[in-house]
Specification:
Elements lengths: L4 E4 L5 H14 L3 E5 L5 H12 L4 E5 L4 H10 L3 E3 L5 H9 L3 E3 L1 E2 L2 H10 L4 E3 L2 H4 L1 H8 L8 E3 L8 H7 L4 E3 L10 H16 L5
Parallel strand pairs: 1-2, 1-9, 2-3, 3-4, 4-5, 6-7, 7-8
Helix pairs in contact: 1-2, 1-9, 4-5, 7-8
């Protein structure tokens, strides 16, 4: 079963793509996002999508335009993550058969993203919103809405955010930094998975 944890590999280089991907998958994280402001990002996405197409979902992050949706789709990405709510990009993403995770912060953006067909909402930056604001949003959003806090959250925050209504998380610097060894990335991935499986308690 795919856990609702998305690894955000900002700064990943192609030479590390397969090893890092394998470490994450072995730890139990099978949704992997490579932001477009990473070096030679299309090569990394292609490498991982070919190597792990049967065991993981490889996506692209910081996607802002239709042209970028096209480019990462051709590279093998199966889901799109954005920092913003652009209904045109969301609709186009869905028309191409890809998963859509747009960034939202306000109730207006949440409802606009859902109306455009988003599969889940990326609360960004989550550290500025805080769990209390998510509780307020949960009171008005459709109950089936999938919500992923991203930005300044890690396994130590899982329990608080889950109590506020989060369904999953996007994990960036708590899980991956370009200068970390594969062993350290694997260790942090295992910690995130074990904390999630423990109900959010480290």
């Amino acid at each position: 079963m795919t856990l609702p944890l998305i690894a955000i590999l900002r700064g990943l280089t192609p030479d590390k793509a397969e090893a890092v991907g394998r470490a994450l998958i072995d730890a139990g994280i099978t949704r992997i996002e490579v932001p477009l402001n990473s070096p030679d990002v299309l090569t990394s996405i292609t490498t991982m999508s070919r190597a792990f197409k049967d065991v993981a979902e490889i996506g692209a992050g910081t996607v802002l335009t239709r042209d970028e949706v096209d480019a990462v789709s051709e590279a093998g990405a199966t889901f799109i993550v954005s920092p913003n709510c652009n209904p045109d990009v969301i609709t186009y993403t869905k028309d191409r058969g890809l998963g859509s995770f747009p960034g939202v912060f306000t109730a207006t953006e949440c409802f606009a993203a859902l109306a455009a067909g988003a599969d889940a909402l990326k609360i960004f930056p989550a550290s500025l919103m805080g769990p209390d604001a998510l509780k307020a949003l949960r009171a008005v959003l459709p109950p089936q809405t999938q919500i992923y806090p991203v930005g300044g959250v890690g396994p130590d925050d899982f329990a608080t955010w889950r109590a506020a209504g989060a369904n999953g998380f996007g994990l960036g610097s708590s899980l991956f930094k370009p200068d970390w060894s594969v062993d350290r990335i694997a260790q942090e991935a295992r910690r995130s998975v074990s904390t999630w499986e423990a109900g959010g308690k480290a």
